[in-house]
């Protein structure tokens, strides 16, 4: 039995498959399994994931819309790789907008929403990588501390900017360069303090703590990103192989 659609529409099965492929690819990019700057091709990815080109193209369009991949003339698609200036500009936006979101969350968050924040931190505390101070990986959406605070601001403009337009790009650099080394436990403690300020309705303190939290993350990210750029420049050109369809590790 075949699906019927109006002209120009994507069949439901294809949309569902495209969503699954989008989730797989964006997770691989965020975790660094598809490295920043690496070239990706539709044939390679189609072979890796065993899907047809239609759903893959839809998934890649979504990745491009979320700024995780970019297309260059005569080159093709690559995983996004920000310059240091672009990275710092991204964190400038985080500092301004997320601190505002924390202030508004202290004003508007319901008791149930604050409890959801605390529940997320309890779930994070049980992660083995955080317990061993190796990393602090947060899954997306309702399992992401920062995402919930932005939602708790009840400000639609902030939600559109931080939970949609910039979300995956921010999450990429936050995951790969901020949540490792000695930073995980400190970040976790800072999260608890931010929740306490929000729960008490202290708007000024919530804003201040979030600002300090993002500034600390920016410093860590900038230092580690600079190191990665230096290491990349030192690599022989022959070792920089394009990634056309590598199977992400699990």
From TrEMBL:
Keyword DNA-binding in record: yes
Alphabetic keyword roster: DNA-binding, Transcription, Transcription regulation
Annotated Pfam families: FCD, GntR
The keyword Cell membrane is annotated on this UniProt entry: no
Occurrences of domain HTH gntR-type (ranges): 15-82
PROSITE patterns according to UniProt: HTH_GNTR
One function term, GO molecular function aspect: DNA-binding transcription factor activity
Annotated protein name in UniProt: GntR family transcriptional regulator
